[in-house]
Amino acid sequence: MKSLRVGRIAAGILFEAAFTAALFLVLTCVFIVVFFVTP
Amino acid sequence: MILRPQALDLRLIAHFLGKIVLAFGLTMALPIGVAVVFGEQVPVIDFAVGLLASVCVGLALIVAARLPGKTDMEWAHGMVVVAAAWVGCMFLGAVPLVLSGHWGSYLDACFEAMSGLATTGLVLVKDLDHLSHAANFWRHLLMFLGGQGVIVVAISLLFRHSPGAFPLYVGEAREEKILPNVIETAKFIWLVSFVYFVLGTALLSAAGRFAVGLPWKDAVFHGVCFFMAGFDTGGFAPQSQNIIFYQSGVFEMATIVVMVWGAINFNLHYAIWTGRRAEMRRDIEVRTFAATMTLVAVLVALGLAQSQAYSGAWGFVRRGVYQAVSAHTGTGFQSVYAPELLASWGPLAVVGLLFAMGLGASACSTTGGMKLLRVGIIAKALREDVKRSLSPESALVTTRLRHLRDTFLDDRMVRSAALIVLAYIILYLAGAAAGCFFGYDFVSALFESTSAAANVGLSCGLTDPLMPAGLKVVYIVQMWLGRLEFVSAFVLIGFLWSFLRGK
Description:
The structure holds 2 protein chains of 2 kinds.
Chain A: H1 6-37
Chain B: H1 7-26, H2 29-37, H3 42-65, H4 75-99, H5 106-117, H6 133-148, H7 150-158, H8 162-171, H9 182-212, H10 216-231, H11 249-263, H12 266-273, H13 279-282, H14 284-307, H15 313-328, H16 338-344, H17 347-359, H18 372-390, E1 400-402, E2 406-408, H19 411-437, H20 442-453, H21 469-484, H22 487-501
Antiparallel strand pairs in B: 1-2
Helix pairs in contact in B: 1-3, 1-4, 1-7, 2-3, 2-6, 3-4, 4-5, 4-8, 4-22, 5-6, 5-21, 6-7, 6-10, 7-9, 9-10, 9-11, 10-11, 11-15, 14-15, 14-17, 14-18, 15-17, 17-20, 18-19, 19-20, 19-21
């Protein structure tokens, strides 16, 4: 098993930030689609 | 036949309980520091009294126990200690709160302390906007301590040997060890929290300073408080209007980042931080989260569209996304006023929020609720049953699931998940029945009960200093049971019963 290193932690944090951004974008898209599609 | 506990059992429990209370009491030194920084004199006395009371109780238990040498703790002892420690910490944590004069009674202060420790976020404080910085900081620190786990705090401060600590760790609804040694696991949880504390506080302070326009000192104080409440998926805020006070989309987005960090399993943080990033795509919890979050978003969006609560796209998306994430991560930050939730959001949106609150987020994170791991396991079991029905009788149907490693779904796993999920549903409904008994309508009672039992903290306005004392007690018990995921609380009740009726 790989150990914890500063570089790996930094890469991990950036990866989690990207995951959060992707989640936010998907949710925003869902709401925008529903807003404009529903009468 | 039920056996009455022996003197050694009681001494063992008292010893470890004393250690935990002592460690908890020592954390009251932090709000004293905050009081000194902000030049507040009276809170120093309040917290000194609380600290002294906790240290006295802790030392009295350790001295009274007089534990002979190294004695191994059994699982039942660990469970009893954990369940009792949470109640003890609530009573002691409420002392400085009630001394501040901002809570109507000691019961209200206990409610707030349990709400903080269990990372719920329902509030009974009066005139929050004029509460001292020290007491306000303590409310958020309670959330931080409870989210990390009171036991994790005690293990980190006062335990040197792993065997005694492991039953305690498991008793606090943490079935998964990240590292082979439980003390190393506690240290890793603190490492993640510390790293994110630095990043999250910097992010929120900068948002408070530049997007909201707060002076630096206030921006940092609010940043620290919001980090503790957001990362530990609690939902307290340092002023009465919660997130609405800031009127800033940037500040709201910063809190969304912190909420998502807190909702991730600490094991998954470890996997990602050691380079195994593919786990984020493969893990059953993340996949379940993606599915349920999308479903919640669709329900809330359709509900908002149906009710026409917001005429513009910006308000529609901003409020909807925020409340969906806040509910599903179990945080409870509120960007709409409490009475507005039921009055103008429409029934479908409320169903979406109830669904999100009830499910909760990851196991071994700071969130409450049923947990996505259990929901994922039950979904897989259902799929397996359907597959088995459609296959020839001689076919061997197996299901694999990925949660940090590959495992096969077995009956024991499904039974354990289903039992806890069932217990949560009963708890949500029992709280709703209690609310109806005290004269509230069913939807409000169910919403508030689910929020309390799943440790979320979204409120439809029912939680109020003027609500009946009986309902306050019901919600305290719900928060306690929900946070500990039943087992250790039931073992404590069984222990007390055997003490009274055993032979």
